């Protein structure tokens, strides 16, 4: 069920997801591999790097009404050992470079 839903989501990305994926696919960010629309436990995450332990979520306007659900979801994912980054659709669409810089900061090895 989750696998079918994930495939459906991969086939119909939002504009923000499509734009960000262009920068995350093919190990373009610090050589780190990302997957998109990946089932993790009871959830499907937008983007994940298993090797970096990083999840990137792109939120649309509907997330303003489901803050409690998103918090619960993020806490569960963090308990599984992942760091969860969240960005709004309009952040990605209007300033993808800043979003990429922020994500890159979590992928770079410490100095």
Automatic annotation (TrEMBL):
Pfam families in alphabetical order: DUF559
InterPro entries (UniProt xref): DUF559, Endonuclease_DUF559_bact, Restrct_endonuc-II-like
Species annotation: Methylohalomonas lacus
Phylogenetic lineage: Bacteria, Pseudomonadati, Pseudomonadota, Gammaproteobacteria, Methylohalomonadales
Keyword Cell cycle recorded: no
SUPFAM superfamilies, per the entry: Restriction endonuclease-like
Domain DUF559: 4-103
Transmembrane annotation, as ranges: none
Residue stretches in coiled coil: none
PANTHER family per UniProt: BLL0828 PROTEIN
GO function terms (MF aspect): endonuclease activity
Superkingdom of source: Bacteria
Keyword terms: Endonuclease, Hydrolase, Nuclease
Protein's name according to its UniProt entry: Very-short-patch-repair endonuclease
């Amino acid at each position: 069920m989750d696998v079918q839903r994930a495939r459906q989501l991969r086939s119909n990305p939002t504009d923000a997801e499509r734009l960000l994926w262009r920068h995350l696919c093919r190990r373009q960010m610090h050589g780190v591999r990302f997957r998109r629309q990946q089932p993790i436990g009871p959830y499907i995450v937008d983007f994940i790097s298993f090797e970096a332990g990083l999840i990137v979520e792109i939120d649309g306007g509907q997330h303003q009404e489901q803050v409690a659900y998103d918090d619960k979801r993020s806490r569960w994912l963090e308990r599984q050992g992942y760091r969860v980054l969240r960005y709004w659709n309009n952040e990605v669409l209007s300033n993808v470079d800043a979003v990429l810089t922020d994500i890159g900061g979590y992928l770079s090895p410490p100095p």
